[in-house]
Design a protein that fits this description.
By secondary structure, the protein is mostly helical. It contains 15 helices and 4 strands. The strands form 2 sheets. A two-stranded antiparallel sheet has the order 1-2. Strands 3-4 form a two-stranded antiparallel ribbon. It is elongated.
Length: 454
């Protein structure tokens, strides 16, 4: 397609996009699935642009939530505060709200390097919308439902019109650092910085992108005092993390088990796509109705969208180097506990953004915390598939589909975080800080937004 082919896996996923929804699906969860299918068709997912993908899902589910809130007020609205006409069809409202947001935002933000992908996303949404309306009896209820859905969509689209999401996806003018610890461009990709302005996008729930900021990365170089000091935060901790990812995360010699390699590749797919799918499957037996699901998925996707905004702000604030650069240049890092390997590369090409903190870890922890708080339990049986495994038959919907099983949301979040070390992308400290921040973001969103109404 173009020189960014190595990142573009949308085409290989399209065949699996329309698998059967989880048992107990309703209009909200079905449109949650449609949003993911549309993101794949528009080449935002399953790996290329999770930043705009997360925003797309958040806006879609806010519109759905607010449309249902206008029909029956069970939780506080976010952008659209009105009352719908009596007897409005809830299913029509959900479909119209989702359709209008998805169409408007896919058209506004087509795939950065392949604008032709937008057409596939738009066509998919329109087909799903026509199918959804076809099973709703024509009449005043459907007409009123469509009207309230469209109004809710217009409200969130207007609210987010100038939120900064038009920032450059790939900045080829960005100047990397040159000193030990400073981020450099990594191998296998063109020399650009991924969305350095995303940290300035207006959050959905956080007061600012620096809220709950992570601790700084460990010091790279050792002073005389630090050589004899084993306290947390010393250069010894940095060396421990470097040697950890060096042994486990490389494309060449490594000590990863086969299961750890599967973990590394399984969790490479887009976090918003993965955690929304996981939510649909894991919560199917909780007896949630349309309004419950509308609130759950709005909170989930607000938290994940804000997680990316916050994490990108931290990444370009610290500008800390990735393991690939650190391992190759360990001979000049001023740390006696590290040693260089000039040929070391991560298992797959390292994303073109700084290391600290791990946005992937933030996303997983934020999602897990939202599920835990909304559902009232962390313990749930999860069996999740992925679209990023190298063998197409093992991906979601494939003949040999691989599912990884967990007994809690937090267990899944921890494995998701660790996967970024096993794939060679992050130091463990970046993962640990991301997990802590993600939990705080999830708590903040659930505690302060879409609160229940008596």
């Amino acid at each position: 397609m173009n020189k960014f082919n190595q990142f573009n896996v949308c085409a290989l996923a399209l065949g699996a996009a329309g698998w059967t929804p989880a048992a107990g699906a309703d209009a909200v969860t079905d449109w949650n699935r449609v949003a993911g299918d549309a993101a794949i068709a528009a080449c935002l997912s399953p790996q290329f642009d999770p930043l705009r993908e997360s925003r797309l899902y958040a806006m879609t589910h806010i519109a759905i939530h607010d449309a249902l809130s206008a029909i029956q007020r069970r939780s506080q609205p976010y952008a659209y505060d009105a009352l719908a006409a009596a007897g409005s069809s809830a299913e029509a409202a959900v479909a119209a709200a989702a359709r209008d947001v998805l169409v408007a935002e896919i058209a506004r933000h087509p795939f950065a390097f392949a604008p032709e992908c937008a057409g596939g996303g738009l066509a998919l949404v329109e087909a799903e919308y026509a199918a959804a309306l076809a099973v709703i009896p024509d009449g005043a209820a459907r007409t009123a439902g469509i009207a309230v859905g469209q109004a809710a969509a217009a409200a969130i689209i207007d609210m987010r019109a100038n939120d900064g999401a038009g920032t450059e996806f790939a900045d080829f003018t960005y100047l990397p650092g040159t000193e030990p610890g400073e981020w450099r461009f990594t191998s296998g990709l063109p020399p650009f910085a991924l969305a350095p302005g995303w940290g300035s996008v207006t959050p959905f729930a956080l007061t600012h992108s620096g809220q709950f900021a992570p601790h700084a990365p460990y010091p790279v170089s050792c002073s005389a005092d630090e050589n004899a000091n084993k306290t947390i935060g010393s250069c010894r901790q940095y060396a421990r993390d470097l040697n950890d990812v060096k042994m486990y995360g490389g494309a060449g010699d490594n000590i990863r088990s086969d299961d750890e390699t599967e973990i590394a590749l399984f969790w490479m797919e887009s976090s918003p796509l993965s955690w929304n799918r996981m939510g649909r499957e894991a919560t199917a037996g909780f007896g949630l109705d349309l309004w419950d699901n509308a609130r759950l998925y709005a909170l989930l996707n607000m938290a994940m969208a804000d997680g990316y905004v916050a994490s990108l702000q931290a990444k370009y604030g610290f500008r800390f180097w990735r393991p690939e650069t650190a391992i190759r240049e360990a001979g000049s890092d001023g740390n006696p506990f590290t040693s260089p390997d000039p040929d070391w590369t991560s298992l797959t090409p390292t994303p073109p953004a700084p290391d600290h903190e791990s946005a992937h870890a933030v996303e997983g922890a934020a999602a897990a915390e939202v599920f835990r708080r909304v559902l009232g339990t962390n313990h749930v049986n999860i069996a999740s598939c992925s679209l990023s495994l190298p063998d197409p038959t093992t991906r979601c919907g494939g003949l040999n589909e691989i599912r990884r099983s967990f007994s809690s949301f937090s267990e899944a979040a921890r494995e998701n975080g660790r996967s970024r070390v096993l794939v060679g992308y992050h130091f463990q400290n970046a993962v640990d800080e991301g997990l802590k921040r993600g939990r705080k973001i999830g708590t903040e969103v659930v505690t302060n937004y879409l609160q229940a109404v008596n």
